[in-house]
Amino acid sequence: MSELSAAVSNKTKIRLLALMMAMEIYTLGVSAIGMATSNSIVFVANFVIAFTGALASGLSLYTIKRMTKGTDLLNTYGLGRMETISSIVVGVTMVMAATFVGYETILKLYHPVDQHGGLAATLLTFASFAASMWLWIRNYHLSKTEHSPIFGSIWRMARMGALEDLLIILAVGLALIFQGSAWTRYLEVVATSFLMISIVKSIYDVFSGSMSDLLDRSLDEYNLLIILRELVANFDAYDQLHGIRTRRSGSQTFIELFLEFHPETKIAAVYDLLARLETAIKEHMPNAQVMIIPSREPNLQRAAD
Q1: Neighbours of 181 (CB within 10 A)
Q2: E strand or H helix at 163, and its extent?
Q3: Is the pTM for the entire model greater than 0.90?
């Protein structure tokens, strides 16, 4: 899928991650109230998910603040890999949450009990549900604007939080309304089962995207076609194309173009071509860094030697 025309500022990233962490801390408090006033497993699951979410958003916030310092002598390609590693850590916290929720769901299935209490915590959950929905939609749209492992993992975590809050409202609310009915014993099991499906899907998405960046895989076919389109549009500025090498490092994209030029081509013309290509490519990949590497066919090189 194509990336859009503008990169997201670090200030916006920091603000959204701070809101995410504040929302998770609020959810921790609400879940603690629910655990203290009821016997519902969904509040326990919500507490665990909120705890892992607070850790993940805190780590992501630290990563973005560290990245704002830019490159240094030890990190000449920047700190994009920190963003990818942070995304993997978020995935690990999701695995921990999924393991705990799955274990508690199985126990509840074999030992169902009547639901009691939890009204106050359920009412307070409406606020975290609204916040999670907003953060989910906001971070999702930003992840489409800029390839960012952190945004990719955080919007999925916000989606998981929104689903968990909705399941709390439905499961606990229905159990309180129809209190005493035998079927209400299994509402929590159904709710946490739906949650498990969402968690597993999010874990797969987070790890599959992050691992490809760590393995230095090339850009997808869509983005490679964008690069080729711009090369075709400027075909008269060089003689031959000998190769394209691409990789991602967090939200940064590195593109190396191996081009052969006429021997009389001036360096100013090469710089002009580079500027045109980078400007056009950045309309689709805002954090792209384009490099032109003058190159010749191996046999021509040997003949010249």
Answers
A1: 12
A2: helix 149-177
A3: no
